[in-house]
Amino acid sequence: MSHLIRVSRIALFTGLIIVLPASILLANDVSERVIKTGTFDDDLYLAGGEVELQATVNGDVSVAGGELDLDGEIKGDLMAAGGKVILRSLVSDDVRVAGGEVDVQASIGDDVIATGGRVRLDRNAKVGGRAWISGGDIRIGSQIAQELRAAGGRIVLTGHVQGDVYLRSKQIEIGPGAVINGNLYTHGPREARIAEGATIAGEIKHTEVKVPVAKIVGRLIGVALVLFIGLMLAAVVLYLLFPNFSQRASQSLRNEPWPCLGFGLAVFAATPIVIILLFSIAVGAWLALLLLAAYLMMLLLGYFTGALFIGEAGLRLIGKTEPNKTWRAIGLCVALLLLAIINAIPLIGNLIFWLVLLGGMGALKRQMYLAYKQS
């Protein structure tokens, strides 16, 4: 069952990666708020901060946005992704949806694949095919014509399922009024809680799944170690590519720490505001995306610059007043390691993290400005 759930997630996210960018690139309408009514005889692509669809679409619909409210009738497939998704449309074919909150109140002709933080299939919803659901909190009160497969943190089933049901969770509840005309298979650390009034026509089979804490912790440590090594390699490569510029930025932070810190704070606070303003203007969306990418890169490079400053300060303490590139690269790696350890300390670690980030970011931007003036 876990394999099939993973397959459903992979299929959903693969589709979202491929199709949803078309919602932006090929969108019939892109703005902060999009409202579509009437009848459309072709496929429909929509993107926006808030998207409302109250139309008949004689084709497929792909939609992406912050809040999606989808109503009307869709004669083809629906693919949607958003922070909050409410689906009331009559959909003739398949539905693939992802979001922070997913609320399905629709009649769906064929299969539905849904994933999100909270996923709810309303009691008025109908699924003509299979339902594959994954999420943190899952509540299923709908009618499902074929099998149901779900995996999540908590699953509550109160609907009617004509086929077999496969549930994987640490907390499974079969509520009163639930009807399963097939078998019930559950996987988790404890058996499902089955309320009086629930009807299960087939067999009930539970497979106990113990949580391998030590294995999970080991994997997390391994992932963190790989990410940290990658971070150090990226820092060293960037330094070796731009050694002179990096050293001047570090020197600027050493000579004028407070102006660099103030400049970094100003850039850190002002840039997101500019990005939001550009996103609110339709013609500024692409510029906003470019600025957002540059801003994220600047945060990373700023932290590297602050770490380089700390590494060079450490080298001076051991008598390396004029270190070569190799020593500076070693100092950079040691500084990143020390910062990773210090950042684990509550309050003090957070304070040092922000001082390094903002100081390095300010020094980097200041050096970029000086280089621009000289050119």
Number of strands: 20
Share in β-strands: 25-35%
Distance, first to last CA: 62 Å
**Fraction of helical residues:** 40-55%
Mean pLDDT: 86
How many separate domains?
A: 2
- Helices, by number, come to 7
Reported for the largest beta sheet, the result is: 20 strands, parallel
Low-confidence parts, pLDDT < 50 over ≥5 residues?
A: 1-27
What structural class do the secondary elements suggest?
alpha/beta
Dominant shape: flat
Q: Tell me the Rg in angstroms.
A: 27 Å
Helix-strand sequence? HEEEEEEEEEEEEEEEEEEEEHHHHHH
Structure keywords:
2 domains, flat, alpha/beta, 45% helix, 20-stranded parallel β-sheet, disordered N terminus, single chain, 375 residues
What would your notes on this structure say?
The protein is an alpha/beta fold and 375 residues long. It has two domains: 2-208, no CATH class; 213-374, no CATH class. The chain contains seven helices and 20 strands. The protein has a 20-stranded parallel β-sheet that branches.
